[in-house]
Design goal:
Layout (H helix, E strand, L loop, with lengths): L1 H8 L14 H13 L3 H12 L4 H5 L10 H9 L2 H4 L32 E2 L7 H4 L6 H13 L5 H18 L6 E2 L15 E3 L8 E3 H6 L9 H14 L8 H16 L13 H30 L2
Parallel strand pairs: 1-2
Antiparallel strand pairs: 3-4
Length: about 300
């Protein structure tokens, strides 16, 4: 408790702003892996829809990092972070807690699409069982998939669904985007955002949140270009079989990983120091989840447009 108090005095810990999902590098890595596994019809449709998206120019500005790489692939990779990028774009607005709608507001940030707050330890009749479950991650992936496959919709609506889908498939594979640990009063830790940890390997900022630590496992958020493409190719070649499964199963995998790999050893009353063993295992989990997200995104798009 003394360590936690010290961190709070220093202005870090629970007062830190909420983290996003995988950082930019993570989403781009998964998108790069997905592109390599898209069928020719899927690539053609994806490329056409990206041209119809109103924020196309945002991604075109980043093409300089990719040299002679095929334009459509570079745009697909850069579009993967759009759902996080609009959080800081004044053209978009925050919205109140939503109900499921077939016509979502296309200028809203939809912050509750990125996560779900499932209880870390269910089935005990504790306060976490009575707490309201927030977040729409799973159901929005299903809805956006149906929207993308609906040929009655115009290209702008389907392009909107595509770009959200690229991002949210990455989100659901980050274990801390489907779970929260609840205290005795039923208050969630916001997917580890309110749990401080110390990472000795981070010389610049060792004190961080558990959520941010996991978000940053893919590498520097600014990672682009050949370094990113090489990292994605290496990770994809290292990981062997990854079953496609259902969206609900993807969520269950992340929930189980949170229970067995993320939270064990993390005492909510302390600011734990993450040792080398924890970091090594976390990195292995993150790499596999990024590869699974990329392969499964490709599988989803290939099913929509034919293999």
């Amino acid at each position: 408790m003394r360590a936690k108090a010290l961190l709070l005095i220093l202005g870090i810990g629970l007062g830190a702003p909420p983290a996003l999902a995988w950082n930019g590098a993570g989403h781009r890595i998964s998108a790069s892996i997905a592109w390599n596994r898209l069928s020719a019809p899927a690539r053609q449709q994806v490329s056409r829809l990206l041209q119809a998206h109103p924020d196309l120019a945002r991604w075109q500005r980043q093409q300089k990092h990719y040299g002679s790489l095929e334009q459509s692939r570079a745009l697909f990779i850069e579009a993967s972070t759009w759902a996080d990028d609009i959080r800081h774009d004044s053209r978009y607005h925050d919205n109140d807690a939503e109900t499921l709608s077939d016509t979502p507001d296309m200028m809203a940030r939809h912050r509750d699409w990125h996560y779900e707050n499932l209880p870390l330890t269910p089935g005990r009749g504790g306060p976490e069982e009575r707490a309201p479950q927030r977040g729409q991650l799973t159901i929005r992936i299903k809805q956006l998939s149906a929207q993308l496959a609906d040929r009655r919709l115009g290209d702008p609506e389907r392009a909107y669904a595509l770009v959200w889908l690229i991002h949210l498939v990455g989100d659901i594979h980050q274990p801390l985007h489907v779970v929260s640990r609840y205290d005795e009063e039923g208050n969630p830790d916001a997917g580890g955002n309110d749990q401080s940890v110390i990472d000795p390997a981070n010389n610049r900022r060792p004190e961080t949140s558990l959520h941010t630590y996991w978000d940053d496992l893919p590498g520097p958020s600014r990672l682009r270009g050949n370094q990113l493409l090489d990292a994605a190719q290496l990770m994809d070649s290292d990981i062997q079989h990854t079953p496609q499964k259902t969206v609900a199963a993807w969520r269950q995998e992340s929930l189980q990983l949170a229970r067995t790999r993320v939270y064990p050893g993390i005492d909510s009353n302390l600011v734990p120091v993450l040792d080398e063993r924890y970091s090594r295992q976390a990195k292995a989990v993150a790499d596999r989840r990024l590869v699974e997200a990329g392969r499964r995104l490709a599988g989803l798009l290939n099913r929509i447009w034919g293999k």
